[in-house]
Design a protein that fits this description.
It is built from no helices and 11 strands. It is mainly β.
């Protein structure tokens, strides 16, 4: 069982930055693929970024060049650095973990564990 706790959300003006953190429990954190998803009001949850156990990363097109996902295995933590934020980035951001899955990193159904979410609000 893995428990995930996000932090770092808040209110920021357009063009600003935030860093989200996701602290995970468990002794095999380094083996998990870790993802960030987001969900805006009235919209479906969507993929944002993914980091594999090998530290390779993937991003949705709209955040490439602005967001960076990283992980610190000794601290059992994954981060999402968000720069040049836009109002359309406003959403609840969720951290997710999966183990033993190679494909479909952008599909929420492929993840085994989820955090409770943290709100990110970007004002114009």
């Amino acid at each position: 069982q893995v428990q995930l706790v996000e932090s770092g959300g808040g209110l920021v003006q357009a063009g600003g930055s935030l860093r989200l953190s996701c602290a995970a429990s468990g002794r095999t954190f380094s083996s998990y693929g870790m993802g960030w998803f987001r969900q805006a009001p009235g919209k479906e949850r969507e993929f944002v970024a993914y980091i594999r156990w090998s530290d390779t990363t993937s991003y949705r097109d709209s955040v490439k060049g602005r967001f960076t996902i990283s992980r610190d295995n000794p601290k059992n933590t994954v981060y999402l650095q968000m720069n040049s934020l836009k109002p359309e980035d406003t959403a609840v951001y969720y951290c997710a973990a999966r183990l033993g899955v190679v494909s479909a990193y952008n599909e929420a159904s492929s993840y085994n564990y989820w955090g409770q979410g943290t709100q990110v609000t970007v004002s114009a």
